[in-house]
Amino acid sequence: MTEEGFPPTISARNVSGEVGVRITPIPHLNVQAAAFIPDFVSEFSYDGDADVTSSRLASRREGVEVQSLCLA
Fold first, then answer.
1. Rounded to whole angstroms, how far apart are CA atoms 7 and 1?
2. Are the C-beta atoms of 32 and 25 separated by less than 8 Å?
3. pTM for this model (two decimals)
4. How far apart are CA 38 and CA 18, in angstroms?
């Protein structure tokens, strides 16, 4: 155990999912989109101002990424 009372570990379990699609609506144009949701059972957070790493409770992140690329 560390002095904060946490077991000395550097990994956190998580469950996540991602789905995406890539299309070419017209020649030389690729469009990609992806949505993701990772659920973290626990996580570590670093506070640079205090130079402290602490354990946090469960959290969820959600996001969408969209990209287009012209190959002409």
1. 5
2. no
3. 0.56
4. 8
Compute the residue count for the chain: 72
Separation between Cα atoms, residue 13 and residue 5, nearest integer Å: 19
- 29-40/63-70 β-pairing: antiparallel
55: its two tokens = 């354990």
Tens of pLDDT, residues 5-64: 666 555 556 678 899 999 999 999 999 999 999 888 877 888 889 888 888 888 888 999
Q: d(Cα 32, Cα 22) in Å, to the nearest integer? A: 4
Asked if 66 and 35 count as a contact pair (C-beta separation under 8 A), the reply is no
C-alpha Rg value of the chain to the nearest Å: 19
Cβ neighbours of residue 57 closer than 8 Å, sequence gap 6 or more: 42
